[in-house]
């Protein structure tokens, strides 16, 4: 026992942790956490704003309940993990350091406070939910404990649900649909419509009104040009701590009157801050537009750059937040997103501040926001698609999307493909107004578009200073996917979408804490070198900032800066840095020239994607992950994006006609079907080949399966994924190939497929998806294990008032591959047929 305690005492040995106090983490609690860390070998430091933040580089971890502290981005760049206090408690409970990613306070990991356990649900669904929760910051517990927050189940009669009721645990019992919708949207939505025992998504009529919802994320951030809140304008203003030690510069492009400017300056100075007119001395720069010399210098120097809306938010809540956190807390561009000036966008089903926020966001993109919907509109942005306005928009051929498309176009500053399924996803009983305003800005995108450092010189050239910064669009492919083993049947059509991240961040313990066998610390030269280059560049920019500012001032003098500036005899001439210093700067700039050139080569934007390729049956990658990754990277450089989701494919590559889930699901979307040889030739020649030269021709297989590939493709275009619309299937979980595979095929073709486990009290098919003749199908086989379920299936369907039909899976596969409806009679199974065959 004593030996075990000694190990616990050393659990946090070599860790130096900064505990950040905030609104949700009081100093008292922070000091309690510090005591626990210290008792187990750690070295804690408690940081209480607005004091100066300690040297970031000395810490192995930062403990915080929020990412709203100024050093968060710097910590992320330095690969220092930021964790919630639960990380420490969980590590102590397990006796080892837990994975830091599952305890990040980053709201982009939107399931980070979810601890899920699964009840009586299919194994395939269970695996998908667990993987999705872990990927988005949550945790999985195989047992019901007091730490669990959600039970995923189909009924409240399961063993785990009964445990929760008996022990009176505060655990929400939700349908799997909730996780599915959260992961499809990339946002956490309200659980109430999915909560058992009476989930709203199953009992509400299709045309029942959906309640409106407000988002807390846009409070105080719905407009880039707000009015000063009344309490701040009054003489008896509340005391603030957020400006302690801050030096604020108000830009001239704010165009505010002297009275308001004096009021703002007074608030800042009364509460420990300072006002400056020199950008090099400022810690915080407030401006209206992403334009101008001061904006670029402040941004390149990593100063806090925000607009008046952000400044008022700091004053109102007395809590520091990043100006990147909310789209309209950051200065707006002067020009529209390329192509957006042609758009006319209308809003539907958003109310209150969410509607105001989206109206201002549309204006900021450069599009026209119309109060009413007309046929000349191009887009309808809606919170749900259950309204007459949505029906009219679709009838007129307008694009109907949710607000995620608008927000992410603005954040990426480009028109994103509207074909992304997240932008068309509308959960049945959810008003997406509740997740408005959760999209963040990405500093790397802003840098490439608005303040790229390519023009930051060691001494400001005249032409460069007069020339506007070039917008360099960094076209990054941010899609990621999960590899699927072709030898096992898996759900591809309903694959859980992996969240997109603008910047890959490894939140593991820093490399300087991982010791090599010889006792030396492992180093990561590339990360260290990159970080040193950034620090050197920033330091050099700080050093020459006064010279640049002087140069800008000189430009405004009548006649400009001519022939080297003023004469030596001018009385008010200011002597710039001496020649030795300039020589040093030039030498330093020259020495880093090669590094910068190499960096530019590494950051070269990838070519545009010309095809989304779904691949099945490619033996070259079997059991060779390294080869697969390398080949996929090479293909991406040629403009080919390899996808795992059939919904996203424009081309399907296979060695022959196959009955794999990818091939069958892919057929439903009518892609061009090509030979595997296409991939080999692209890789071999390192050049994109013409896919029409590699069309798949497999007449033998077409004859065997009784269909034509060319005709199936034409049928798929006409069917528009509604071949099986109105068909309802049940499937045994022990069916050969797996339930998930057949569910994906049915769903890809517009049908509905549920798992059947022999219970006669299962949920009946939803009314809006029943066939007119009331038939319900069980996909089965002639095996004894399957036969014993048939009587129960018949009883279940008869209780519904429907007609049960038991069929072989070949019926579904033949229809899906030919994209034609076929009679079920030739595929039907019953006890008499099996007895006769025996």
UniProtKB/TrEMBL annotation:
Compositional bias per record (Basic and acidic residues), positions renumbered to this chain: 467-478
SMART domains, alphabetized: BRCT
BP GO annotations: DNA double-strand break attachment to nuclear envelope; double-strand break repair
Protein name, as recorded: BRCT domain-containing protein
Pfam families xrefs: BRCT, PTCB-BRCT, RTT107_BRCT_5
Span of the signal peptide: none
SUPFAM superfamilies xrefs: BRCT domain
């Amino acid at each position: 026992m004593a030996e075990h305690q000694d190990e616990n005492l050393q659990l946090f040995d070599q860790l130096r942790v900064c505990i950040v106090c905030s609104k949700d983490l009081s100093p008292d609690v922070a000091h309690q956490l510090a005591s626990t860390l210290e008792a187990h070998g750690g070295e804690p430091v408690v940081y209480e704003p607005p004091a100066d933040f300690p040297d970031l580089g000395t810490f192995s971890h930062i403990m915080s309940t929020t990412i709203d502290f100024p050093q968060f981005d710097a910590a992320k760049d330095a690969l220092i993990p930021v964790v919630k206090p639960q990380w420490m408690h969980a590590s102590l409970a397990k006796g080892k350091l837990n994975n830091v990613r599952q305890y990040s306070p980053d709201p982009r990991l939107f399931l980070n406070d979810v601890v899920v356990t699964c009840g009586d649900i299919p194994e395939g669904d269970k695996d998908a939910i667990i993987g999705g929760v872990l990927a988005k910051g949550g945790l999985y517990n195989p047992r019901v404990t007091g730490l669990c927050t959600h039970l995923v189940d189909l009924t409240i009669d399961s063993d785990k649900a009964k445990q929760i009721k008996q022990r009176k645990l505060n655990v929400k019992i939700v349908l799997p649909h909730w996780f599915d919708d959260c992961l499809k949207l990339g946002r956490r939505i309200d659980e109430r419509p999915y909560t058992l025992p009476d989930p709203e998504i199953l009992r509400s009529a299709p045309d029942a009104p959906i309640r409106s919802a407000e988002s807390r994320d846009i409070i105080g951030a719905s407009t880039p040009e707000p009015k000063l809140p009344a309490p701040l304008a009054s003489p008896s203003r509340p005391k603030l701590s957020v400006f302690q030690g801050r030096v604020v510069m108000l830009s001239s492009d704010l165009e505010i009157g002297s009275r308001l400017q004096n009021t703002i300056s007074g608030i800042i100075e009364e509460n420990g801050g300072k006002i400056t007119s020199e950008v090099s001395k400022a810690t915080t720069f407030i401006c209206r537009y992403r334009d101008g010399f001061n904006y670029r210098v402040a941004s390149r120097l990593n100063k806090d750059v925000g607009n008046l809306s952000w400044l008022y938010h700091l004053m109102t809540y007395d809590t520091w937040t990043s100006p990147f956190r909310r789209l309209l807390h950051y200065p707006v561009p002067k020009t529209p997103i390329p192509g957006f000036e042609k758009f006319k966008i209308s809003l539907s089903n958003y109310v209150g501040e969410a509607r105001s926020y989206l109206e201002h966001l549309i204006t900021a993109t450069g599009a026209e926001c119309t109060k009413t919907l007309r046929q000349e509109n191009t887009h309808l942005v809606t919170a749900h698609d259950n309204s007459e306005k949505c029906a009219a928009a679709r009838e007129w051929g307008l694009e109907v999307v949710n607000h995620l498309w608008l927000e992410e176009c603005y954040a990426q500053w480009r028109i994103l493909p509207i074909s992304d399924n997240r932008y068309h996803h509308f959960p049945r009983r959810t008003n997406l107004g509740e997740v408005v305003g959760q999209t963040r800005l990405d500093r790397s995108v802003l840098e490439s578009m608005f303040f790229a450092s390519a023009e930051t010189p060691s001494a400001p050239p005249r032409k460069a200073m007069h020339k506007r910064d070039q917008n360099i669009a960094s076209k990054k492919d941010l899609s990621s996917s999960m590899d699927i083993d072709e030898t096992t049947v898996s759900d591809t059509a309903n694959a859980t979408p992996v969240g997109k991240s603008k910047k890959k961040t490894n939140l593991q313990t820093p490399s300087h804490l991982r010791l090599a066998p010889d006792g030396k610390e492992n180093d990561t030269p590339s990360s260290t070198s990159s970080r040193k280059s950034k620090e050197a560049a920033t330091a050099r920019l700080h050093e020459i900032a006064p010279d640049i500012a002087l140069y800008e001032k000189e430009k405004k003098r009548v006649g400009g800066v001519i022939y080297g500036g003023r004469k030596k005899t001018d009385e008010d001439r200011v002597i710039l840095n001496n020649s030795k210093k300039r020589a040093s700067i030039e030498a330093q700039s020259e020495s880093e020239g090669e590094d910068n050139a190499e960096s530019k080569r590494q950051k070269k934007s990838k070519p545009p994607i010309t095809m989304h390729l779904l691949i099945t049956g490619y033996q070259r990658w079997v059991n060779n992950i390294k080869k697969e990754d390398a080949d996929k990277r090479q293909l991406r450089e040629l403009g080919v994006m390899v996808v795992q989701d059939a919904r996203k494919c424009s081309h399907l590559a296979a060695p022959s006609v196959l009955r794999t889930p990818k091939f069958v699901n892919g057929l439903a979307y009518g892609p061009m079907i090509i030979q595997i040889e296409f991939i080999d030739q692209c890789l071999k020649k390192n050049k994109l080949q013409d896919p029409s030269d590699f069309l798949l021709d497999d007449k033998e297989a077409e004859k065997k399966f009784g269909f034509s590939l060319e005709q199936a493709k034409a049928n798929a275009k006409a069917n528009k994924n509604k071949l099986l619309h109105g068909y309802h299937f049940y499937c045994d979980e022990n069916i050969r190939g797996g339930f998930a595979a057949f569910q994906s095929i049915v769903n890809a073709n517009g049908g509905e497929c549920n798992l059947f486990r022999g219970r006669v009290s299962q949920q009946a098919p939803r009314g809006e998806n029943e066939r007119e003749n009331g038939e319900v199908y069980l996909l089965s086989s002639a095996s004894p294990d399957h036969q014993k379920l048939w009587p129960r299936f018949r009883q279940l369907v008869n209780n519904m008032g429907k007609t049960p039909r038991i069929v072989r899976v070949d019926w579904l596969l033949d229809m899906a591959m030919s994209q034609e409806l076929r009679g079920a009679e030739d595929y039907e199974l019953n006890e008499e047929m099996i007895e006769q065959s025996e």
